[in-house]
Design brief:
The chain has about 150 residues and is an alpha+beta fold. It has 3 helices and 6 strands. The strands form 2 sheets. The protein has a 3-stranded antiparallel sheet, with no helix packed on it. It has a 3-stranded mixed sheet with strand order 4-5-6, with helices on one face. A hairpin with a 4-residue loop joins strand 2 and strand 3. Helix 1 crosses helix 2.
Length: about 150
């Protein structure tokens, strides 16, 4: 079972800053746009999706013995206009550097989306998730003296 607790830090007034603590002892501050001291909960949900698929993809690529020298993900989401403002469409852009087979990246993303990423499985109940990737080739270094 996963557990966490949240504690309201702005007791007076209309502030909504919370400190969230996971059972493993990690903390994060959450706030709204007015308080602006931490991410909003919906932003954390989008980050969780990015992190979940990133963990899967890099793990799978390493098992495939792909030489990844850099990896970043950009995530964007459209939300429903009326409350609840859940995600309706999410774009995930994987940008990888190294000597990497494109088919391996495609397969790793597919496995994350269809088998491993629990956050994606939840978000896909309301949103269409669209993933793309780009491989940035690494320059070949010439040996000294040539």
């Amino acid at each position: 079972m996963i557990e966490s607790k949240l504690k309201l830090m702005t007791v007076e007034g209309s502030g909504r800053q919370f400190v969230a603590e996971t059972k493993s002892g990690h903390t994060v501050i959450m706030d709204d746009a007015q308080g602006h001291t931490g991410p909003k909960p919906i932003e954390l949900a989008l980050l969780a999706l990015g992190g979940c698929t990133a963990f899967d993809v890099i793990g799978i690529l390493r098992k495939m013995r792909q030489h990844v020298t850099s990896y970043e993900i950009e995530v964007r989401a459209e939300q429903r206009q009326e409350p609840p403002n859940y995600f309706t469409r999410v774009e995930i852009k994987h940008r990888l550097g190294g000597t990497i087979d494109p088919e391996s990246v495609r397969r790793a993303i597919e496995l994350s989306e269809t088998k491993y990423c629990s956050v994606g499985a939840m978000i896909s109940k309301t949103a269409r998730i669209e993933s793309t990737f780009e491989i940035i080739p690494q320059p070949v270094l010439l040996e000294a003296g040539r």
